[in-house]
Amino acid sequence: MEQEKRRPWRRWVVLALLIVGFYLGELFVPVQPEITVAPEKLIEEPIFENFLGFAGPLYLVNTMPTLILTVILIVLFAYAVNRSLKKSAQTDFVPRGIGNVTETILEVIYNMTEGAAGKWVKTIFPWFATIMIYVLFANLMKLIPGFESIGVLHHAQGEGHARELLVGNWYLFTAEKGEYILAPFFRGISVDLNFTFTLALIAVIGIQVVGFRAQGMGYLTKFLNFGGVFKKPVFGVIDMFMGILELISEFAKILSFAFRLFGNMFAGMVLISVFGALLGKISIVPAGIYLFELFIGIIQAFVFGILTMVFMVMATQGHGEEHAKH
Amino acid sequence: MEGSIMEAGRYVGAGLAMLGAAGAGIGVGLSALGALTGMARNPDTYGNLLSSMILGIAFSEAIAIYCLVISFLMLFKVV
């Protein structure tokens, strides 16, 4: 009963925030930020002229601070879960709070993996869970207010915005055209093709490793299937070409992994900034987009993980094994 | 003059790239259709079907997202 009385009170907060947002939108006109596909450079000069001797110049781009922040957050999260579970183990073995939530989620994922992978669940589950948690943090971090909107000013190459003094060394963009563009301090790491591509490479190499562990050298017959050419002339040749197609699809996996995550997150970023610039005063619309992006972020993290899991399961089940089952 | 033709080509290309979204729309509609039919036949499977449907929709939507990325790449002069 007590709780039911308290509920309507929170709705008025939302309404008050809407009205405040409307008037703030009048005072500080929303500006459409510069949208770039590559992460912006915080410092124009490279940190290392030739990184590691062969990799070319290394710039301090604005996804690097976010990467550090994400890793710190994940470590803190792991520490909090560990402490919560230890505390429950010392008292009555009933997990509470953050430990309970994490256990529920991981249990669902574990059961899903066990259903698909069978005896390989202990090998595949860590990949699935690690990738999912990492991508989940990366996707949700980009929704924190202040990301993409606070940063250093650079002189624009083309069209920029005018600025006005806020306090001290801090400036605010105005609606007029000017000569400055913003390089934000933080940009969500999944809005960087380098991050998604690296993760896709790790996932696909992991798939091959699991395949080799499950089938040994027999895994290679998936790609180089010459065995049947002499036994059954027509179907053997078809099998050989299927093997080549498998090899191509292995490389296509990298691209599709990378572009699926990057595309979804980049589209979300553009959607939020465009809607914020157009309808910033009516703040419920950008808030709705934010909610949608929350949903997309969770779904995409799950999709990245589950695809890795499914491909790994496919890699553990060999060609011959399948025939033996029939 | 040359610059404006380039500009026009970019916008036309960005629009044309988004044609691929039609296929993704069909895919999303088909997955929702299948899930709804299943739910109508057997309402108990609602939870299972919903999660699988959202997963399938995410996959078909990825195709539209590829198109969106290509059209963004054209619009923002990356390539």
The proportion of residues in beta strands of chain A is 5-15%
Rg calculated over all Cα atoms of chain B? 18 Å
Show the largest interface.
Answer: A-B, 18 and 14 residues
User: Which fold name fills CATH's third level, the topology of chain B?
Assistant: F1FO ATP Synthase
Order of helices and strands of chain B: HHH
Q: Number of DSSP helices of chain B?
A: 3
Q: What's the shape of chain B?
A: rod-shaped
What is the assembly state of the chains in this entry?
heterodimer
Short description:
The complex is a heterodimer of chains A (326) and B (79). Chain A is mainly α.
Question: How would you describe what is shown here?
Answer:
The complex is a heterodimer of chains A (326) and B (79). Chain A has 326 residues and is mainly alpha-helical. Chain A is built from 8 helices and 3 strands; from the N terminus they run H-H-H-H-E-E-E-H-H-H-H. In chain A, strand 2 and strand 3 (170-184) form a beta hairpin. Chain A starts with a helix and ends with a helix. Chain B has one domain: Up-down Bundle (F1FO ATP Synthase). Chain B contains 3 helices and no strands. Chain B has helices at residues 2-17, 21-41, 46-75. The model of chain B has no long low-confidence stretch (mean pLDDT 86).
What are the defining features of this structure?
heterodimer, A: 326 residues, mainly alpha, two-stranded antiparallel ribbon, 8 helices, 63% helix, globular, disordered C terminus, B: 79 residues, F1FO ATP Synthase, 3 helices, rod-shaped
What layout of secondary structure does this protein have?
The complex is a heterodimer of chains A (326) and B (79).
Chain A: H1 2-27, H2 63-90, H3 97-117, H4 121-141, E1 145-148, E2 151-167, E3 170-184, H5 193-215, H6 233-279, H7 284-316, H8 319-325
Antiparallel strand pairs in A: 2-3
Chain B: H1 2-17, H2 21-41, H3 46-75
Helix pairs in contact in B: 1-3, 2-3
